[in-house]
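Quick illustration, no need to memorize.
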Amino acid sequence: MARIEVKSEVSGKVWKIEAETGASLDTDDPILIIESMKMEIPVGAPRPCRLVEIRVQEEEAVAEGQVVAIVEA
C-alpha cells in the first residue's frame, strides 16, 4: 500500500477534525476543516484510502503546503 501525504492548500487554523485514525475514506471525504479568512476549507481524501495519521490538532495554526495527514491507498 502506498502512503500519501495530505497537505493543506491554505494557511489558517485547524477548525475541526472530521475523521478518526483508521477510518476508511472515499475520494473527497473530509479529513479536517481549516478556517482561513473566515472561510471554512475542507481538506479531503485524495482517493479511496485509510487514514493512518493526523499530524495536527484542533486550533493549531497550519501553513500552506504543510502535511496535515497521512493516508494509505
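The chain has a mean pLDDT of 97.
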